[in-house]
Every structure is written in structure tokens, then in C-alpha cells.
Structure to design on (283 residues):
């Protein structure tokens, strides 16, 4: 999927769906943001860029951490999600950094040269069509000695929240067209050596890739059936199910319920996740 295809996708039905789900996604991913922020070297930074900010929950957390006198610019290609982010910014408590949001493609946008001392992203950098060029663009936007910190998913097989529902769906659906290795998508940075090569080629130094295991509370619905339907609208399984007739969807939901039952405790559907925390400095 090219950058233009990503732009079209995230401003179409998918972008509106994720905007509607923002409260759920913010809750789901907040623990990952809380774990990434201390690794970001954010203390004392004054000008932060949040790449792929989505609904802005992590931009808000970053603004509260940096505090008054600092600034945070959240950038995303999805206007529906940026509308959610701007609404959150209007509720920022006193003493927070100034927050603004911009619709732009971070891979090519002409940011001010050396304008940021921190570039941060929670799952927003795996969708670049040309990742070396994209990170080189971000590198140009950073002050010498600036800090880069982002999270990205490890492989789909290492992320049960995605792998299990997809395998259940494939019992009733044909497999999708295979994607080339490293193609833009949620698992594009699953190979840590590839991530290090990309960042090194873009000019970054002191590159670190740390494995982080977590448990994702993907749904807090009062029944397994409702939780399965919540899970079916996020991640790769959602794309498999797009446009399928109701009879097929019901078969997939039943298959998902069977394999996910051990992960539901009567209140919450929780599944393992595996993340890379990546940090680097600009030269």
C-alpha cells in the first residue's frame, strides 16, 4: 500500500471507524504509551513531534509530561482522527505544553529544519512507503542530539490479539494476497535488524531496539460475543471482514468465540502483545 493509498484509507471509512473507536483505543494502548515515555528521554525537551498521532491521546500525555513552555505538534494523515485529537486538546489542564495538530504526511512534509528536539510515535511509523526517506525527513527536522522514540509491533505471530482472530477468520475466508516483505502495514517493522538498518541509513545513531511484552485488554464488553465483535473491527482481521455478507460474518464470529473463550474472564477479553520500543539520537 503506497502512501497515497494510506491517505485514502485513513480518510475514508477506516478513519471514521477508528475515530469512533478512539476512546477504546486510547484505553487499550495507554499502558504502552506509559511504558514508552520514560524511554523517550522526554524530560527537559521543549519541542516535540508526535508522528501518526491519531486521536491524540499520547500527544496529550506528552504535553502533560513536558509541561508549560514546551510545545507538541501532532501530525497525522487522517482528518477524522485529527478532529478527535483537537477536541482533546481543548480540555488540556493548566500547566501543560501547548498542543497543535496538523494534517500532513510526515514522510515528506517540509518541517522546519532542526525544529524538534524529540520525535515520538506510538505505532505511527510503520506505514511509510519509503521508510528510509521518511526517517531522513524526520532526521532533518530534528536538532542535533535530538531524541527519537517509537513503538512498533513485533510479528503478527507474536501478537495473539491479531494472530488468533485472523486464523479463525481464515477458516471461512480465502487468504488475502500476500504482501511483500516489509510492505507498509502494522507489522512492517517486525524485523529489528531491518529497523536498525533503516534508521542508520536515515542518519540516526545510538539505535536501540528493546522487546516489550504486554497484555492487551482488547474489550471490556459484558459477554464474549460482544467482545469478539469489538475485536473484529480492529487490526488485520477487520480488513479481511470488510464487505463480507452477514452469514459469513456470523460464521467467523463463532469461530473466533471458540478460540478466544480461554482469554475471556467474564468481564474482559485480554490477549498477549509483543512490541518493539525503538530509540535513537539524531547526529
Amino acid at each position: 500500500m503506497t502512501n497515497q493509498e494510506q491517505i485514502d484509507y485513513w480518510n475514508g471509512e477506516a478513519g471514521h471507524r477508528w475515530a469512533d473507536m478512539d476512546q477504546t483505543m486510547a484505553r487499550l494502548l495507554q499502558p504502552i504509551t506509559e511504558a514508552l515515555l520514560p524511554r523517550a528521554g522526554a524530560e527537559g525537551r521543549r519541542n516535540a513531534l508526535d508522528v501518526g498521532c491519531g486521536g491524540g491521546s499520547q500527544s496529550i500525555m506528552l504535553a502533560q509530561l513536558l509541561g508549560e513552555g514546551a510545545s507538541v505538534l501532532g501530525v497525522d494523515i487522517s482528518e477524522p482522527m485529527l478532529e478527535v485529537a483537537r477536541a482533546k486538546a481543548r480540555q488540556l489542564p493548566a500547566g501543560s505544553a501547548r498542543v497543535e495538530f496538523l494534517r500532513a504526511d510526515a514522510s515528506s512534509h517540509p518541517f522546519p529544519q532542526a525544529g524538534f528536539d524529540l520525535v515520538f510515535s506510538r505505532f505511527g511509523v510503520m506505514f511509510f512507503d519509503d521508510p528510509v526517506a521518511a526517517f531522513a525527513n524526520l532526521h532533518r527536522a530534528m536538532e542535533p542530539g535530538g531524541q527519537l522514540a517509537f513503538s512498533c509491533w513485533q510479528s503478527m505471530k507474536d501478537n495473539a490479539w491479531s494472530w488468533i482472530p485472523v486464523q479463525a477468520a481464515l477458516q471461512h475466508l480465502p487468504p488475502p494476497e500476500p504482501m511483500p516483505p516489509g510492505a507498509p502495514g502494522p507489522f512492517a517493522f517486525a524485523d529489528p535488524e531491518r529497523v536498525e538498518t533503516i534508521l542508520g541509513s536515515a542518519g540516526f545513531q545510538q539505535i536501540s531496539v528493546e522487546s516489550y511484552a504486554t497484555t492487551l485488554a482488547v474489550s471490556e464488553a459484558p459477554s464474549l460475543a460482544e467482545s469478539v465483535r469489538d475485536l473484529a473491527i480492529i487490526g488485520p482481521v477487520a480488513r479481511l471482514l470488510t464487505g463480507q455478507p452477514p452469514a459469513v460474518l456470523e460464521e467467523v464470529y463463532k469461530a473466533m468465540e471458540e478460540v478466544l473463550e480461554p482469554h475471556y474472564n467474564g468481564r474482559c477479553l485480554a490477549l498477549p502483545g509483543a512490541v518493539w520500543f525503538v530509540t535513537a539520537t539524531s547526529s
About this structure: Strands lie at 47-51, 71-76, 98-103, 116-122, 142-153, 204-219, 269-282. The chain has eleven helices and seven strands.
